[in-house]
Amino acid sequence: MYAITIPEPGGPEALVWGEVPDPVPGEGEVLVEVVASAVNRADIMQRQGFYDPPPGASSYPGLECSGRIVGIGAGVSGWSVGDEVCALLAGGGYAQKVAVPAGQLLPVPAGLDLKQAAALPEVVCTVWSNVFMVAHLRPAETLLVHGGSSGIGTMAIQLAKAVGAKVAVTAGSKDKLDYCAELGADILINYREQDFVAEIERATGGAGADVILDNMGAKYLDRNVQALAVNGRLAIIGMQGGIKAELNIAALLGKRAAISATSLRARPLAEKAAIVAAVREHVWPLIEAGQIRPVVDRELPMSEAPAAHQVLEDSGHIGKVLLVAP
Q1: pLDDT for 57-83, tens place per residue?
Q2: Phi and psi of 6, rounded to 5°?
Q3: Contact 62/265 with Cβ under 8 angstroms?
Q4: Taking the chain, what is the end-to-end CA distance rounded to the nearest angstrom?
Q5: pLDDT score recorded for residue 271
Q6: In whole angstroms, what is the distance from residue 111 CA to residue 60 CA?
Q7: Are 190 and 182 in contact (CB under 8 A)?
Q8: Over pLDDT 70: what percentage of the chain?
Q9: What mean pLDDT comes out for the span 35-61?
Q10: 276: Cβ–Cβ under 8 A, 6 or more apart, which residues?
Q11: What is the pLDDT of residues 173-197, one digit of tens each?
């Protein structure tokens, strides 16, 4: 088969499309013939040499895919050759085939085509696990999403609105904010021109955000705590703004607030399977009812992964960038 490899860390040009051995499904795994994968910030970090795959995972980038089952390992039940699926991966999505633990498979939702389904697993599992399973967003609460026009952001807006929450977003242009508004965002903040702490305080009458979904990390830590409501919850899922920052413990104590930081990739299989099962139970019906949809910015051939990475690095997208396998 062919896959994207990373012979040496570097810029987008470090991604090389070449012939590699076919994967073999182990016990509890299925083999998926990939139709499409999607680009995530974690893939960029891996390409740069900052985010190695967990032990035992594929060395190829790609944290989600869609496709058809073409092989089944020992001990797998409930799936058959020919099933159309999408999958949460620890790696290997930028390839023509990938071996996937059966607990990380999802059926393609009714109403979506197979390529569109590749835009779902990573963002839905990330948002559901952090915003709902960890931060426990409730109806009528306010969620602040940094990077509202990203794949994560566009999904977070829709899921939060589906449960009756109010949504604030930050983004860097009017076009991106307008798109967030189309998805249901109530409070639109241009981070290049506005202070999100002041805007949240104004929009909530001084109450603050009950939950913040943050992809920036260190750069926003202090201001995120300022923007939190009493009993607020800050969920950190990225470190685009650095890894080290000072934390005002007094401010955190004064608000009786909580901070969580999670990633999906290196979690034990049982934890990932539990998240996938919760997503299938709670989110798949919303997708099939048309209340939630994946937002796809563009599709590129998988061999053009360098160009797709450049799109993400330039922030020249809204939603997900898909890589379509030949």
Answers
A1: 999 999 999 999 999 999 999 999 999
A2: -130, 80
A3: no
A4: 10
A5: 97
A6: 30
A7: no
A8: 100
A9: 96
A10: 88, 103, 104, 105, 106, 121, 125
A11: 999 999 999 999 999 999 999 999 9
Q: Is 319 helix (H, G, I), strand (E, B) or coil?
A: strand
- Spatial distance between the Cα atoms of 211 and 156, rounded to a whole number of angstroms: 11
Rounded to whole angstroms, the Cα distance separating 325 from 118 reads 11
Q: Please, are residues 86 and 117 in contact by the beta-carbon 8 Å criterion? A: yes
Q: How many residues does the chain have?
A: 326
**Which token pair is 243?**
């890894």
Looking at residue 278, its pLDDT comes to 98
Tokens of 187: 């409070």
Specify whether the backbone of 261 is left (phi greater than 0), alpha (psi in -120 to 50) or beta. beta
Radius of gyration, CA atoms only, the chain: 19
CA distance 32 to 65: 9
The arithmetic mean of pLDDT across residues 223-245, rounded, is: 96
pLDDT, averaged across the chain: 97
Contact 241, 218 (CB under 8 A): yes
Give the phi and the psi of residue 275 in degrees, each rounded to 5. Answer: -65, -45
Q: Which amino acid appears at position 322 of this protein? A: L
The pLDDT > 90 percentage for the chain reads: 100
What pLDDT digit, counting tens, does each position of 273-301 carry?
999 999 999 999 999 999 999 999 999 99
d(CA 295, CA 258): 30
Tokens of 159: 């899921």
C-alpha to C-alpha distance for 70 and 274, rounded to whole angstroms: 24
Burial of 254 (0-12, 13-18, 19+ CB in 10 A): exposed
User: Given this model, what pLDDT does residue 5 score?
Assistant: 98
Q: Considering all CA atoms of the chain, what is the largest pairwise distance in Å, rounded to the nearest integer? A: 59
3-state helix, strand, coil split of the chain in percent (to 5) is 35, 25, 40
Closest of 314, 264, 320 to residue 39, by C-alpha: 320
pTM: 0.96
| pLDDT score for 232 | 98
